[in-house]
Write a structure and sequence with these properties.
The structure holds 2 protein chains of 2 kinds.
Chain A lengths: L26 H6 L3 H15 L6 H14 L3 H13 L4 H7 L5 H4 L3 H14 L7 H8 L4 H23 L6 H10 L3
Helix pairs in contact in A: 2-9, 3-4, 3-7, 3-9, 4-10, 7-8, 7-9
Chain B lengths: L2 H9 L6 E5 L26 H14 L3 E5 L9 H9 L4 E5 L20 E6 L5 H8 L3 H14 L3 E8 L9 H9 L7 E5 L4 H5 L15 E4 L2 E4 L6 E2 L2 E2 L4 E3 L6 H12 L13
Helix pairs in contact in B: 2-3
The chains are: A mainly alpha, B alpha/beta.
């Protein structure tokens, strides 16, 4: 049960109604719609940060799911476990990102290990990121890719806090999918 | 969107020139068709005097041409008459009140309202006291009929608003029109409007169903945010209606004003106020 009212199409503010035109837009939009002037800018930012960019969809989804795990966001872990499956991450890779099995076993590529190290330093700790983590990641990823993925991690953390703070409910559709795939 | 864009939109008639302000939501009455479910027990949702004056000042600089103050019952706020007078130094103000808190010894509270740029709009729904009081509360008719001539004599411009479930041009309203005239109110200052099916009226199946294109798109500011039209910030079953919410930000006024204009420009052709709602 969400801590805040999740608006439906009848109560959607006049400026938010396009987001409800094709049916239930999901809990994040339904919650953000209570402050309609934030809805468009937030979705535009999150869409740009999490959507297609110069790095691969696989790398972005790896960053999103790993960040959500580190932040302990139940809603985002559920939602992005389903998305990760959709973009081709294996069950073992997802289990590793979720902390169920060893990362090194699921991600043998050094480049992805360094990327996970960068994400863990950003989303799993506070303070400065150690130089050796940056240097290791830079050996495999161009600087602009790490900037882009840093924004992806930051945007994910925004969603993590939103979904966790407001206790947004996992959708029935996602729950059913995770049950089918053996994740719940 | 620049401030001059807003001013040009108002000057051209693209955006209405009046800003409505809900000063508060609580009321000494509990009318049957109230849009905001106001009553003595309602959550107050008050704006401050400073906020209201700032809205008037910023509204003028943005090119708006008038202010309307409504509630709830604004006269429940002790500082309201003086604040309205201060606002009128910047833009003309219409103050909506039930008029029942200006009787007897409290009449002197109306003194600041005797101002060339202030009009006081008081509700009266029937020439028959029992019918009027059925909707608006005991003794409402007598209190209104007593206070209106006193206000006029003291220099206050008074408008009367009649809210009806029937046709706006019905001959059954003629006796009421005559009564209002006899109180000293000019015909052009007698407003007849339909019950809008929102708030308590919706719960009781009263009035006309209105969507955004039926409601004059006057920028409306309440403690809960900025809305499309004065029929926007309604309350149903204790919960604020958000379908006409524009922004939660109310100041600076340029933010909700810009949002209203952008929303207006996205509406289909033909949007108007065809139901006579005002």
């Amino acid at each position: 049960m969400s801590r805040t009212q999740l608006l439906d199409a009848d109560q959607a503010p006049i400026t938010a109604q396009p987001y409800f035109a094709d049916g239930d837009p999901g809990p994040i939009v339904a919650a953000l719609a209570t402050v309609p002037e934030l809805l468009g800018p937030t979705l535009n930012f999150v869409g740009a940060a999490l959507g297609p960019g110069s790095v691969t969809t696989r790398a972005k989804e790896l960053a999103i799911l790993r960040t959500s795990v580190l932040q302990g966001c139940r809603y985002c872990i559920h939602a992005h476990t389903a998305v990760a499956l959709d973009v081709g991450l294996s069950t073992d890779e997802i289990r590793a990102l979720r902390g169920d099995i060893a990362l090194e076993d699921a991600f043998p590529e050094v480049s992805e290990q360094t990327l996970i190290g960068w994400i863990d330093a950003l989303a799993g700790a506070t303070g400065a990121v150690p130089d050796d983590v940056w240097i290791a990641a830079r050996a495999h990823w161009p600087e602009h890719a790490l900037v882009e993925l840093t924004v992806t991690v930051g945007a994910t953390m925004l969603l993590n806090r939103l979904a966790t703070g407001l206790d947004l409910p996992t959708s029935d559709q996602v729950t059913a999918r995770l049950r089918t795939e053996g994740f719940v | 969107m620049t401030e001059s864009t807003i001013a040009e939109a108002i000057a051209s008639g693209e955006m209405p020139g009046r800003v409505w302000i809900y000063s508060n939501y609580h009321c000494n009455l509990a009318c049957s068709y109230c849009l905001t479910e106001s009553s003595p027990r309602s959550e107050r949702r008050e704006l401050t005097a400073e906020q209201m004056l700032t809205i008037a000042i910023e509204a003028k600089s943005l090119g708006f041409t008038g202010i309307g103050v409504t509630g709830g019952e604004p006269m429940l706020l002790p500082w309201l008459p003086e604040t309205v007078a201060a606002m009128a130094a910047h833009l003309p103000v219409i103050l909506l009140t039930n008029g029942t808190l200006l009787g007897g010894d409290r009449f002197e509270r109306a003194a600041p309202l005797a101002h060339p740029d202030i009009a006081v709009q008081i509700s009266l729904d029937s020439h028959q006291p029992d019918l009027n009081d059925m909707a608006r509360g005991p003794d409402n008719f007598d209190k209104v009929v007593a206070v209106v001539p006193r206000l006029i004599v003291s220099g206050v411009r008074v408008r009367i608003a009649t809210t009806t479930a029937g046709p706006l041009d019905s001959p059954t309203l003629d006796p009421l029109r005559a009564l209002v005239r006899s109180l000293g109110v000019r015909d052009e200052d007698h407003i007849v409007r339909p019950i809008v099916r929102r708030g308590r009226a919706d719960e009781r199946d009263l009035g006309v169903v209105a969507v955004a294109r039926n409601i004059p798109s006057e920028l409306t500011i309440a403690a809960d945010g900025a809305f499309w039209g004065s029929f926007g910030p309604t309350v149903r079953a204790g919960r604020l209606d958000t379908d006409l919410l524009l922004t939660r930000t109310i100041l600076p006024l340029s933010i909700p004003a810009s949002t209203l204009l952008a929303t207006l420009r996205g509406l289909p052709e033909g949007a108007d106020a065809s139901l006579g709602i005002r």
